[in-house]
Amino acid sequence: MSMKNILCIGAGYVGGPTMAVIADRCPDIKVTVVDINERRIAAWNSDELPIYEPGLEEVVKRCRSRNLFYSTDIPKGIREADIIFVSVNTPTKTFGAGAGKAADLQYLEKTARSIVEHAENGKIVVEKSTLPVRTAQAMSRILHSNTKNLKFQILSNPEFLAEGTAIRDLENPDRVLIGGMETPEGEAAIEELVSVYARWVPRERIITTNLWSSELTKLVSNALLAQRVSSVNSISALCERTEANIDEVTGAAGKDSRIGPKFLKASIGFGGSCFKKDILNLVYLCGHYGLPEVADYWEQVIRMNEFQSRRFVGNMLAAMFNTVADKRIAIFGFAFKADTGDTRESPACSVCLQLLEEHARLNIHDPKALGNAKLDLEGATGEINYLEDPYEAAEGAHAIAVMTEWKSFRELDYRRIFDSMEKPAFLFDGRNILDHAALYEIGFNVYPIGKKALTHF
Ligand code: UDX
Ligand code: UDX
Ligand code: ADP
């Protein structure tokens, strides 16, 4: 099959950047991205892209209308495509069997059904969304329920990009993983997709496995990463009760090459659309396959994450004389991590809701995520102000709570901020990114994560 047309169904955080980089690296392939959300497609075709991601705009501008197209015409896209990537959303089910744990596959199933309806020849269908293991099988059944005698090959090609570094991760991935059926047709389909990535990814970094290994690897990778964060955060609690310093502990532990230095940063907790969802998926799968001990083991990673944000708010309350009622608190950062406007599962949201319950008044500042913050807190009761200017956010506040590790927070004039605040002024650094000794010198009472607080009383 000579391959010329790639279609991606779902123009979100995964499909958008991934297709932009494929189009950029494969000028001879026509890449079309479709979505049912017309506003999203219009935004991809405009100067205001629907998601913020460093470097994305340049790539999109370079390729758009050359070999990268955004459209709402899903039937036409399906008819013309040789390879179809499916990257629709697969949120955790909120209803029925498996609610709160299993993945909600309704969008995926609808997509499979529209492929069946509109396809006029056989195609390679690539799962890009994070899915429970064995989803490919369900997908295959739906696709092969067609009465046109069309043959489909299903591949799993999980996405490992992290938001904020998506373009870099796509251009220079640690690995690309492609899973397929262990049949001659399956292997041919794998090779077809390998040949796309091989244009810019060294061959030895393209790993091929069977379908189920590929699907499970995605869940396991995210579970192991989240587990590292929860492990470190659990130890940060112990550090705060002792004389140990979490950065010293992880710095020294990470020097062991078996442990490694990355992903050991203590925080108010992990967020993002993947970690919690994927672990819940794993937990559900383990339960389903009769492994309750394994399910409990992984569920604890999520419980520890929830404990960490509760603990943070508890520390704020304890420091501020056991009440924040009526106190103004500046929230620095609402995104779940730096360099993104994404706020899905952001620990900042959970901290804000807990503070509102305590009747605090919030001034929220974030360089990119204020729009999403407003949507997330729409139904919340209490006083919330959204401020583009961090100095305005801190003015008259009793405390600053750093929620996101934005670089810009390090470059602020904290003396000016201190002078404008109520006294005693408190600073809770939920990311350990600021110079705590310098802040203490200015006059702040400083509460880092996993380290001794620096207080003037
Ligand atoms: C993650 C995976 O890294 C990526 O491979 C997968 O494809 C999608 O899920 P992402 O959610 O975009 O990516 O961000 P990531 O950098 O993994 O951070 C997740 C959360 O963990 C963030 O809230 C981050 O602040 C937190 N984190 C990360 C820590 O608290 N400490 C760390 O040391 C690292
Ligand atoms: C360990 C630490 O590695 C060492 O730094 C510390 O000083 C003492 O404890 P040790 O117990 O000698 O050293 O052996 P290690 O290689 O760490 O293995 C410990 C156990 O884990 C062994 O039973 C080993 O078989 C098992 N293991 C290790 C696995 O099952 N899988 C692995 O991937 C690694
Ligand atoms: P992710 O982080 O996995 O990319 P997003 O929610 O950002 O998730 O993106 C998923 C996209 O998939 C959304 O823009 C949504 O409108 C789109 N989508 C969901 N169902 C369908 C469907 N049946 N056909 C086309 N697009 C769909």
UniProtKB/TrEMBL annotation:
* Active-site residue list: 274 (nucleophile)
Check the record and name the Gene3D superfamilies matching this protein.
Cytochrome c1, transmembrane anchor, C-terminal, NAD(P)-binding Rossmann-like Domain
What are its E.C. numbers?
A: 1.1.1.22
Residues that, per the record, bind substrate: 159-163, 218-222, 258, 265-271, 336-337, 431
Enumerate the Gene Ontology biological process terms.
glycosaminoglycan biosynthetic process; UDP-glucuronate biosynthetic process
Copy the pathway line from the protein's UniProt record. Answer: Nucleotide-sugar biosynthesis; UDP-alpha-D-glucuronate biosynthesis; UDP-alpha-D-glucuronate from UDP-alpha-D-glucose: step 1/1
One example GO MF annotation: NAD binding
Protein name, as recorded: UDP-glucose 6-dehydrogenase
Q: Which UniProt keywords apply?
A: NAD, Oxidoreductase
Q: What does this protein do?
A: Catalyzes the conversion of UDP-glucose into UDP-glucuronate, one of the precursors of teichuronic acid.
Family per record:
Belongs to the UDP-glucose/GDP-mannose dehydrogenase family.
Output the Pfam families linked to this UniProt entry.
UDPG_MGDP_dh, UDPG_MGDP_dh_C, UDPG_MGDP_dh_N
UDP-glucose/GDP-mannose dehydrogenase C-terminal domain span: 330-436
Please give the catalytic activity noted in the UniProt record.
UDP-alpha-D-glucose + 2 NAD(+) + H2O = UDP-alpha-D-glucuronate + 2 NADH + 3 H(+)
SMART domains for the chain: UDPG_MGDP_dh_C (SM00984)
Locate the residues binding NAD(+): 10-15, 35, 40, 88-92, 129-130, 163, 274-277, 344
**InterPro entries in the record, alphabetically?**
6-PGluconate_DH-like_C_sf, NAD(P)-bd_dom_sf, UDP-Glc/GDP-Man, UDP-Glc/GDP-Man_DH_C, UDP-Glc/GDP-Man_DH_C_sf, UDP-Glc/GDP-Man_DH_dimer, UDP-Glc/GDP-Man_DH_N, UDPglc_DH_euk
The protein's enzyme class: oxidoreductase
Lineage top rank: taxon: Bacteria
